[in-house]
Amino acid sequence: MRSIGLLGGLLSLAGVFVTTVRGDNPIVQTDFTADPAPIVYNDRLYVFTSHDEDDTSSGFFNMKNWRLFSTVDMANWLDHGIPMTLSTFSWASKDAWAGQVVQRNNRFYYYVPITRSGGCMAIGVGVSDRIEGPYKDAIGKPLIENCQIDPTVYIDDNGQAYLYWGNPDLTYVKLNADMISYSGNVQKVTPSNGGYQEGPWFYKRGSLYYMIYAGTCCSENIRYATSNSPTGPWSYRGVVMDTQGKSFTNHPGMIDYKGSSYFFYHNGALPNGGGFTRSVAVERFTYNSDGTIPKMSMTSGPPQIGTVDPYVRQEAELIAWSSGLKTEACGEGGQNVAFINNGDYIKIRGVAFGAGATALNVRVASAGSGGNIEVRLGSQSGFLVGTCKVPSTGGWQTYTTVTCSISGATGTQDLFWKFTGSGTGELFNFNWWQFTSGGSGSSQAPTSTSLPSSSRPSTATASSSTASSNPSCSKLYEQCGGESWTGPKCCSQGKCTVSNQWYSQCL
Fold this sequence. Notes:
The protein is mostly beta strands. It folds into 3 domains: 9-285, Tachylectin-2, Chain A, CATH 2.115.10; 314-450, Sandwich (Jelly Rolls), CATH 2.60.120; 462-507, no CATH class. The chain contains 1 helix and 37 strands.
């Protein structure tokens, strides 16, 4: 990570804690993330997060957008990029803080606190037909304007949706079925021990309602209360987690996935982490027989569920652990690994090679001198099974597919990409990879090249144009427009979604 100068009085509160990185916790290393909001959709676990910028020179939170990651195995996390930014809301000025996404009416609703232009905090609602976004402002104005933060939403079994939020008060309203309006007045509640501070997470398990929250600022621990009613009264149950890492804040998120229960939270455990540069982590746990939650502390993370198939295309931004690099919006759609320097690496946990791989295809681009992808097993300095040489392609988004020979990759292994190069600065971008189990795999030459743009794409707010059903148009997820694009500008499925001046994608 880049070196960060952390200023401000609040940071001194964070500085008394020891930084410890344990195994593959925190779950994201390419950026600082906070305020996890898990949701299960189509048998995949998604986690929406807020995003702490590297630059904290202001001495306070610097947060401009939200991030999205997902997993199917609780070990390797796929980076989906930026689903929503402050610019989504015309009335916003700063502070993209903790939010939550829920699904209803075949749509996804993203409730977030934002500082209004010329005012204090308000809660807005983003909406999208796709969980990955892009999200747009659902109502063109704030839903809640009482200068408080941290919304959490739960839809009860009878269809009634509740929105809780608040710092230092815990308040709620009953949402209408449209999810963008509410009935009645704002109601205030208090957990019985009076230790509520912020960051509520509201859900139901069986017949019992749970309110998990950050208590006792500063620094915060995670506490919880339960109730037989969605509106209380709430009975205090205890501490879920003491202060972890170097963060003086915390924010919980609870979810059940594939038969296990998981607790998400944030800390300051990454290098250069702290009170304003936080990181999301996760623990697996089991409820006690009476429904109470055991007390937890940070571990190396949950065990992996299943394995990764190396013989289908996998995104380069599928990561269990990484060092030194970042991700960015890719000219071919989705994200790519970027800002790769000599010595950086990526770990993918539990890759099932079976009888053995013989070749590897990698999709890469470089406006510099290129470099090498060393394919190693077990660690970044482990057994070398092959090396892919990445050429200069003339642009950071001018991609080519390189094939290299592989020998010795058998069984189920932790796979490491070790990036090396003799040039100074950034080496190349990395979009996707796929192993093969047959053929010589002896070629080191590019097999195809596209997208001649040599500039890095930005993360501008997306918009959409009308789709076409013409089969000659671009297919779903393919390019459909942008600077220097000469191919089809219509979509056979979905809509041509403009991400920035360099590319559009059928979504």
